[in-house]
Design a protein that fits this description.
47% of the residues lie in helices and 9% in strands. The model has no long low-confidence stretch (mean pLDDT 94). Helix 17 crosses helix 19. It has four domains: 156 residues, Rossmann fold, CATH 3.40.50.620; 74 residues, Orthogonal Bundle (Glutamyl-tRNA Synthetase, domain 2); 51 residues; 91 residues, Arc Repressor Mutant, subunit A (Orthogonal Bundle), CATH 1.10.10.350. The strands form five sheets. A three-stranded antiparallel β-sheet has the order 3-4-7.
């Protein structure tokens, strides 16, 4: 890569399971960097592990990326000049390139069985040798002998001849300068017995031929990077800029996993998080915009995104903070968008709003969205605007339907019945005037009426709620609840 090369970055998942939030953050950073630099973000599917390949996982993976808004410029369904974008469709390229390494003496066939490799590992563990791994048993088999054995039907993998001495060094944009002693590196497998490449070989070959300029990936790949550097050197290729991202931990410092709770993009989508929220929150797990902003749009983050602001320290996933941020993003959402979500949610609950005026539905959204932490909260909280409660919050009833509540609620009911222009300011004025006449505080007058009309103890402003529900229905609901009061 030269300084003038346009940025090309990739997200290269394996379709073997769900899209973990750690993988999603990797995709987000690649996407942000490409857009900030005016470059290309492409999707490559690393499907060479045929035993673990899962068609459903592939579908879900691409669906989740699109849901997050991370639309790739090139990749499946959006072909560019560097395809195919499935590694399983690039086998001829890998076979061509492995032949170059074999011809140059940089790779060799290994005929060791899995049983022998297990024996070697067991012996190394027993002997407490400082360096474990393949013992290079087949390293010096001649090309002619290897080809003869293959022709005779023997199965072999192809390994890389890692230099036995010297140091491999590279610079990482986040971790700085890193060096590895070559003697500590294994002769890694490049081509498996089934003819498919390993991750190490395929990713290097593909990153070269697909023009990848920067590799942004999780820091679990740091220990593999010297092997990749050596492969680039063996081919005579310029390696990309390395950028290894810090790990995301749970609140206890452990690894995020489904066993401990939500860990996939699908989990958080199903819980009611907005894609904008998840992108915003994950982006800030390890990166900062250079100021104290937290709630940001995708455009705002792209505009100020730089790799230099990625922190090398691991980040802690705080679901409470994520929940708070979701509420902030819901509050920023267009009311029409939220109305549609609310209507669909109510429909699923058996509440038909098709005859409701659009203005009324939008007013309900306006009142509810400051209190919503999840999109499904809108329908849950909105139900009582359309359906009278059939039961009342148990703790609320003990508090607000107790001794003396009936007398106060009756006064409120009569005051509401006397209002001709049943609008928010008039209703509010009526409560304050009643409180003054009766020697009560306004707060002492609202608990029982709210519970009677909504069935719950919390919600939007009471006067606004009453106006939306309407005078006739408010009075009817209070009449139903009054006999339950003391």
């Amino acid at each position: 890569m030269t300084e003038k090369s346009p940025v090309r970055v990739r997200f290269a998942p394996s379709p073997t399971g769900y899209l973990h939030v750690g993988g999603a953050r990797t995709a987000i950073y690649n996407y942000f960097f490409a857009k900030h630099m005016g470059g290309t973000f492409y999707l490559r599917i690393e499907d060479t592990d045929r035993k673990r390949y899962n068609e459903t996982a592939l579908h879900d993976l691409m669906r989740d990326l699109k849901w997050l808004g991370l639309q790739w410029d090139e990749g499946p369904g959006c072909e560019g000049d560097c395809g195919p974008y499935f590694q399983s469709e690039r086998l001829d390229i890998y076979h061509r390139e492995i032949k170059k390494l074999l011809d140059a003496g940089c790779a060799y066939h290994c005929f060791c069985t899995e049983e022998r490799l297990q024996e070697v590992r067991a012996e190394q563990e027993k002997s407490h040798v400082p360096v474990t791994g393949y013992d290079r048993h087949c390293r010096n088999i001649s090309r002619e002998e290897a080809e003869a054995r293959i022709a005779a039907g023997e199965k072999a993998v192809i390994r890389f001849k890692v230099p036995e001495t010297g140091v491999t060094e590279f610079d990482d944009m986040i971790r700085g300068h890193i060096s590895y002693q070559n003697e500590l590196l294994d002769d890694l497998v490049l081509i498996k017995r089934d003819g498919f490449p390993t991750y190490h070989f395929a990713s290097v070959v593909d990153d070269h031929y697909m023009g990848t300029t920067h590799v942004l990936r999780g820091d679990e790949w740091i220990s593999s990077t010297p092997k990749h550097e050596l492969l680039y050197k063996a081919f005579g290729w310029q390696p990309p800029v390395w950028c290894h991202l810090p790990v995301i931990l749970d609140k206890n410092g452990g690894k995020l996993s489904k066993r401990k709770g939500a860990a996939s993009v699908g989990d958080f989508r199903d819980l009611g998080y907005l894609p904008e929220t998840l992108v915003n929150y994950l982006a800030l797990l390890g990166w900062n915009p250079g100021d104290d902003r937290e709630v940001m749009s995708v455009k705002e983050m792209i505009d100020c995104f730089t790799l230099e602001r990625i922190n090398p320290k691991s980040a802690s996933f705080d679901e409470k903070k994520l929940q708070w941020m979701n509420g902030q993003h819901i509050h920023m959402c267009d009311d029409e968008f939220l109305k549609n979500i609310m209507v669909e949610g109510l429909k699923a609950m058996g509440v038909d709003t098709s005859a409701e005026p659009n203005e009324r539905l939008l007013e309900i959204v306006k009142q509810l969205k400051p209190r919503a932490h999840f999109v499904q909260d809108l329908a849950t909280m909105a139900k009582y605007f359309f359906v009278a409660p059939t039961e009342y919050d148990e703790k609320g009833a003990k508090k607000h339907f107790g001794e003396g509540s009936k007398e106060v609620a009756t006064l409120v009911r009569d005051m509401l019945a006397s209002i001709e222009d049943f609008k928010t300011p008039v209703i509010e004025k009526g409560f304050y005037e009643l409180a003054e006449r009766c020697g009560h505080k306004v707060g002492e007058l609202v608990g029982a009426p709210r519970l009677a009309v909504s069935g719950v103890t919390a919600g939007p402003g009471l006067w606004e709620m009453f106006e939306i529900i309407g005078k006739e229905e408010v009075l009817r609901r209070m009449d139903v609840a009054l006999p339950l009061m003391k």
